[in-house]
């Protein structure tokens, strides 16, 4: 299959990336991050989570963040909504899209939320109905789609089953998420081949983690399957809770470098994203784990040093 | 094209990886590294460089290293030989394969060795002839094959031209090296498609750097072109001299994780290589930059901690 001519990159750094940071990131920093990302051309930013602050204290300021950002025309600001209460918050905050979620792994579902996969998704029915009623987009995220920290192998049929359930709830877009980064291109292709049988390819996205270094190879494999939407996190924000010190979300800079090299349009300015990666890494005191980001920053700095001194 | 059923991994850590380390790595450490790598199943190890110690002081102990290692039956120990003097050293050290090299970038060749590409390769003619005479394998390494730090773009025709010159010298194997890691899968495919027209695919190898995070995507693209030999460096040893702090050689652990996931045989024990990566990173006081390596080490340690205390 020919590669897509253009893709949509969904920036998940402000929510998925930051949510596991121990020290609270000030709302002003989150707002600057989101504003800079949308200004760099990211047309979809996962901005907040309307979850109980007891569960995820880092996301307690979702309403303030959503109220503080500059809304860029055409940009979709997504928020996570675990329940109707969260949906009400999202609605009040004028979110463009809500995100609901479920694991493709029965063991993960039982261990994390103490119920079956089917039950966990059924619980989102009133949230999805309310979103439809108010004209909000709905995104369904299938976690552990390429492997699970508890049960290991996840059958492709389980992923297909969750995709069908999300489709039945009226999801506009569905993410195939390799939550722990264990997938490789073979499994990526198998899963996307299977799910495109039950949901339109152009509304499926790939959410890859780089824990085992496989994310870009998987993205390339998904591109070859015709997938046109990918998630990424600036500076690779977000570690892996299942392997301390290991890498989490694939870095937006690395994904953009790939797309640029393949001649696939994203509408996003890589140089700006590299600067944003530097900004947020410094702001929260965390190493920048984007390889392209680090290489481009090093290059820019060495070029700056060898420039003639124009101040003389 | 179907993926290959098996591939050869050439471990370049002991030479390409270590050569830019500032502090001298003791010969005993180099020897242990090479012995452990061959014991883990790596059938081809780039072990030393017979270059003037004035140029590369880290490689000054090549003869001692080659004399100290245990030769594993069937394993190819390669050494770099920049000239006839180096070849004599390699012969005395009982190297199985010599490595000669040339850039596909005219600017790189001029800047680095002050002569044209054609001249630089012609200088290897007596070395290649001597290797043939003594029955040593010859590997030709084409550097800057996907991009150059000085001239940027490198024409595919230049890569093809250097491959032809190496073929004319009698090379048994030829490396397509992305020395600065700027390539993406599109260029990787274009270059391999072109060079397989002039040299047998099964004797071409891919040498990728992960500076921009693209190495595994490029390896996957090369696998789809039928390439069966790949270079890698345990723990990602070897930085990028053109971008301080940036990543160099792709990590062996990450490549093995990919091959295992694709069901491609390597004959190499990933778990052992992960331990070797930990050993050499600690030995030389350098962070382990293999993502699979770090994730698997973190996993092994957390599993070890949660084991019941069997000492009680």
UniProtKB/TrEMBL annotation, chains A, B:
Coiled coil: none annotated. Residues 7-274 form the Pyruvate carboxyltransferase domain. SUPFAM superfamilies: Aldolase. It comes from the Bacteria. It catalyses: (3S)-3-hydroxy-3-methylglutaryl-CoA = acetoacetate + acetyl-CoA. One of its GO terms (molecular function) is metal ion binding. Pathway: Metabolic intermediate metabolism; (S)-3-hydroxy-3-methylglutaryl-CoA degradation; acetoacetate from (S)-3-hydroxy-3-methylglutaryl-CoA: step 1/1. NCBIfam families: PRK05692.1. This is hydroxymethylglutaryl-CoA lyase. It comes from Paraburkholderia monticola.
